Amino acid sequence: MRTRVKICGITRMVDARTAAEAGADAIGLVFYPPSPRFLSREQARTVRRALPPFVGAVALFVNAGREEVARVLDEVRPDALQFHGEESPDFCEQFGVPYIKACRVREGVDLLEYLGPYSGASGWLADAYVEAYGGTGTSFDWSVVPRRRSLPLVLSGGLTSDNVGDAIRLVRPWGVDVSSGVESAPGIKDAARIAAFIKEVRNADG
User: Fold this and answer.
1) Rounded to a whole number, what is the distance in angstroms from the first to the last CA of the chain?
2) Under 8 Å CB-to-CB from 69, ≥6 apart: which residues?
3) 3-class DSSP assignment, residue 38
4) pTM strictly above 0.85
5) The domain that contains 200 carries what CATH number?
6) pLDDT average per 10 residues of sequence, the chain (206 residues)
7) In the chain, helix, strand, coil percent, each to 5?
8) What are the b/e assignments for 113-123, b being 16+ CB within 10 Å?
9) Which residues are catalytically annotated?
10) Which domain holds residue 184?
């Protein structure tokens, strides 16, 4: 199986093109204002236009209101949504767009129990628990991720070119999601780190 790759927290057109040219399957556009990778809808439209065919754009939200999600859908036209907060299944499914639901893994949280109600999702995402909601380079114990799951699973949290191969071999996720692990500064992607990351993903697949 080929592990899919999403480069999240893209803030510049050049980084969107770099990710696509390196072989990324998707980029992430962050609509969470406290994040250093936050984009306005106008900025996101500009980045979105830099993508070539067959590379998807995923809009990421954390406890956003229905109106904000609807505005992003109308103005940016992402291919999918990604919810990282405490959004209910009904909230996530109301937009009629493919979505990914994240679980922030910490002690005492059963990944499948938490994500089970989101059976209408296109996939689930396992991330490290941090107060700042992602993009901090924090990892978690991958061994707690069940090998048997009913939906495709995306692995995130603290991934870099140094550890993504081990993570893939242990978890066998559908995809991996990286942000700070391919940056030179928050929101600024590094072409060499992106290329190295994707190379290690392909090595692990082989």
Assistant:
1) 9
2) 59, 61, 81, 95
3) strand
4) yes
5) 3.20.20.70
6) 96 97 98 96 97 97 97 98 97 97 89 94 92 71 88 95 96 96 96 98 96
7) 35, 20, 45
8) ebbeebeebbb
9) 8, 127
10) 4-205
